[in-house]
Design a protein that fits this description.
This protein has 250 residues and is of the alpha/beta class. The protein is 20% helix and 31% strand. The chain has a single domain (5-246), classed as Carbon-nitrogen hydrolase (Nitrilase/N-carbamoyl-D-aminoacid amidohydrolase, 4-Layer Sandwich), CATH 3.60.110.
Length: 250
């Protein structure tokens, strides 16, 4: 069985411009495929930017034809991508992660814990299933989900050994949030991959610094700052190797 290669896409979203963001996501998928990535994680609401006032008009569903080129690109590359977008759930508008499978499929994961000020327009979601990877099981967390120790603990109890966090983190929040992710990893024995925006979005001056923490809480690799890049980690036996690769897409 081959070992997975994971990447956090530290992308830049143009506010409300789904067409442009889909195009840049395609370019990131191409770059990730060239690096041998099998799982590609984007930040929270990456396809639209973190724009709550625009979210209702930008909501997507798995069958949306606008997603077809991106879904086909993931299938052709043999990788799974997790992209962020608002979705219409059974109880209202939710913050979603669309899981674009290497088999061409698309399913939805929704944010369970909202930040103050996100409701309205958003309502809490119900999460989703674990991601099955070669030799690993991954659990998704969308930003504030990861601020709840119970969320990470529940993921571990379900059998996850990898915590995948799509985030919107600014300068004031990064020290505490990154420390908590390291604590999740150390306390639960579960590796953590976090993808943050590489530029301001929705009024947040995101600092980038997407990162990967090993199961002992040690930060193996992190982006040096903001700006577009891929944080790539490769599993080799019981060990991980990591690097930060610049992206010249934007």
């Amino acid at each position: 069985m081959s070992s997975p290669t994971l990447a956090a896409a530290q992308s830049i979203s143009i506010p409300g411009n789904l067409t442009a963001n889909l195009r840049s996501h395609l370019d990131v998928v191409t770059a990730a495929a060239e690096a041998g990535v099998t799982l590609l994680l984007f930040p929270e609401l990456s396809l639209t930017g973190y724009e709550p006032t625009l979210a209702a008009a930008l909501a997507l569903e798995p069958a949306d034809i606008r997603l077809l080129p991106l879904r086909e690109a993931c299938r052709a590359a043999g990788l799974t991508a997790v992209v962020g977008a608002p979705v219409q759930g059974p109880t209202g508008l939710q913050i979603g992660a669309l899981i674009l499978g290497a088999d061409g499929s698309c399913r939805v994961h929704t944010k369970q814990y909202l930040h103050p000020g996100e409701a309205p327009p958003f309502v809490p979601g119900s999460g989703g299933e674990l991601l099955e990877l070669p030799g690993l099981k991954g659990a998704l967390a969308i930003c504030a989900d990861s601020n709840q120790p119970a969320h990470a603990a529940a993921a571990r109890a379900r059998g996850a050994d990898l915590y995948l966090v799509s985030a919107v983190i600014g300068a004031t929040g990064y020290p505490a949030d990154s420390a908590q992710l390291a604590d999740h990893a150390r306390r639960l024995g579960m590796a953590v991959l976090m993808a943050n925006h590489g530029a301001p979005t929705g009024g947040y001056a995101c600092v980038g610094r997407s990162a990967f923490w090993q199961a002992d809480g040690h930060c193996l690799v992190a982006a040096p700052g903001d700006g577009p890049c891929l944080v790539v980690v490769r599993q080799q036996g019981d060990n991980w190797q990591g690097e930060s690769l610049p992206l010249s897409i934007w």
